Amino acid sequence: MIRHHSADQAHGGPGRDILIAILAGAGVALLSSWLLGYTAAIPAPHQWFVWFNNSLGSYAGLVAWELLAVQFPAAGLTAALAAFVLVRCSSLPWWQTCLLLIGAELATTVFLQFPHFHSLRGLLLLQHAHELVVILCILTAGYLSSRSRKKTHPV
Fold first, then answer.
1. Cβ distance 49 to 58 under 8 Å?
2. What is the 8-class DSSP label of residue 56?
3. For the whole model, what pTM was predicted?
4. Mind listing the pLDDT tens digit for each residue in 96-120?
5. What is the distance, to the nearest Å, from the Cα of residue 18 to the centroid of all Cα atoms in its chain?
């Protein structure tokens, strides 16, 4: 008797894609935590804070530096690259792949920071800069990848 397998069965099915997205999210968290050690050491130029003190305030300058110079290069670009590749290779809808990636990345980040939770009070926006950057980068890259996947591989 000849069995006919669908493309999902030959590929490993959605279960395999779910597992890959979860493992990739954990990998993004681990890699970005290592990279954050380097980007966090980049000092902000004095003129950066002078400009913000004269216009929006020093806290706005600190938040902007954290988002643009610390979190985006380390966590944002890593997460965006993972999302772009996973969405192109996955049989799942782009938004499901992105949600799995976000959930796994954030869960791993919380696990890594758990011993330090008692010191994470105050400065609300700075406290959530990592999450903001990761979520925006994953959703943007995932959506763009899904748009290019439809153009190159019409269903």
1. yes
2. T
3. 0.80
4. 999 999 999 999 988 887 666 555 5
5. 16
98: nearest Cα among 86, 109, 110: 86
**DSSP collapsed to 3 states, 33-44:** HHHHHHHCCCCC
Buried b (16+ CB within 10 A) or exposed e, 37-50: eebeeeeeeeebbe
Q: How many CB atoms lie within 10 A of CB 133?
A: 24
Helices and strands (H, E) in the chain, number of each type: 8, 0
Cα distance between residue 135 and residue 76, in whole Å: 8
Task: Please give the C-alpha separations between residue 91 and each of 17, 76, 94, 137, 153, in angstroms, as whole numbers.
Answer: 7, 24, 9, 21, 12
Residue 12, SS3? coil
Domain boundaries, the chain: 32-112+122-149
Structure tokens at 18: 């779910």
The answer to whether 138 and 80 are in contact (CB under 8 A) is yes
